[in-house]
Amino acid sequence: MKKDHWIHKIHLPNWLVGILALVLILRIPTFFEPYYYGDEMIYMTLGQGIRQGLPLYSEMFDNKPPLLYLTAAIAGNLFWFKTILAFWSLATTVAFWKLVKGKMATLIFALLISLPLLEGNTANAELFMIGPTILAFYMLLTKKLTIKNLIISGFLFGIAALFKIPASFEVPTIVVFWVITQGMGKWRTIFKNTFYLFVGFIIPILLTFIWYFIKGGLKQYVEAAFLQNVGYIGSWGVEVPLPLRAGLIILGVLLLFVVSKKISKDFLFACLWLIFSLFAVTLSGRPYPHYLVQSVGPIAILLGMFFTSRNIEQALVVIPLTVAFFIPIYYNFYHYKTRDYYLRFVNFTTGKISRATYFDQFSPNTQRNYKIADFLIKSSLPHQRVFIWDSDSPTIYALSRRLPPIKFVADYHINDYYTKTKLVGDLAEKKPRFIVLTSKHPLPEIMNFIRKEYILIHQIEDANIYSKLETITL
Asked: Is the pTM of this model over 0.85?
């Protein structure tokens, strides 16, 4: 009876169960996607490295904190990675409902984190980090602000940041909310609450510092996951200077302060959340749709108000929503066609197109990548290293579960953080079992080394596969 007691406390309204069912249905096609999406392939490759005992950052590189790669390592393959994301999305939707309670806002939120429009079908960091962020806001806005609750909330923000650093830019949302709603007359209380919130936030991050210090990789961790991300700021073509963006945030906060007595706390909070999340979304100026997922929460709240409120705020929400919709246009964010995504899945499941045709509609190199990976699996042992030079190299590494002899898995990693001279030296020292080069991505710097140490043994479409000379047996 005791077990039944706590189970019966978990009660979800029927309409919410329906939304959760819709989320799961919308995610069914993701379980059938091929290995093709660049970011996912990097995560899967680094996850494979973790499973083989390689330390992140010192021997396997990417520029995000560790939780996404650990999740990929737990998953082991793309299907389970997508499955973890599906159930994570269900839990995130429930957390959002607990925060807002509104039907329309919850439905909009569920759709925006699930549809391919904002790459909701891909296992990107934003979809994982918004869950802890929403839980933190839920605790801070609905629970008593005890030291324990403040530290737990901060801890959740820290977990979100360990999926991706821009999540940390949402912490000021709640602090500014306290300042506006409580007034500076309670600055001691606000300072105390902010302090404990910061303590909770820094705990999980410090634990990762200690872990990588013990493992001898603290310097590489700090550089890769934190310092190198500074270079992302304004690294794309469209750019609004950082001081100007900071000024716009201050202006927005001041305007909200002026009108705070005339608007509801819900509207105030949603606007503040939107302001700080959009600042994080536009940090790099890069137009990737999944970045916008970070702002889905406040956008859903404001849209919910627009469709359901029966007061002046129904009109006022047009102002922040205009800003929210202007940002993707100004930065020329990409978008993906949701209808086409589901239509090709229907065509595949009903037998109108073959598996090969279905896969090719994700990427024209999909079939080639699968063939190369199949060859590597059959011709090498799991611990043997291979080097692949192609824009799809992470895909082939992930598919074959073979790792490179260097810590970089993507060609742009090598171009940005490495040198071709060092690459030749490392290849000469470590001599991977196979080297795969494609005609569309020549690498003349290593050809002299290949001629001396390797022999061409197989060709798959535009890919030449070279094997170490001493491994050839008759």
From this structure: yes
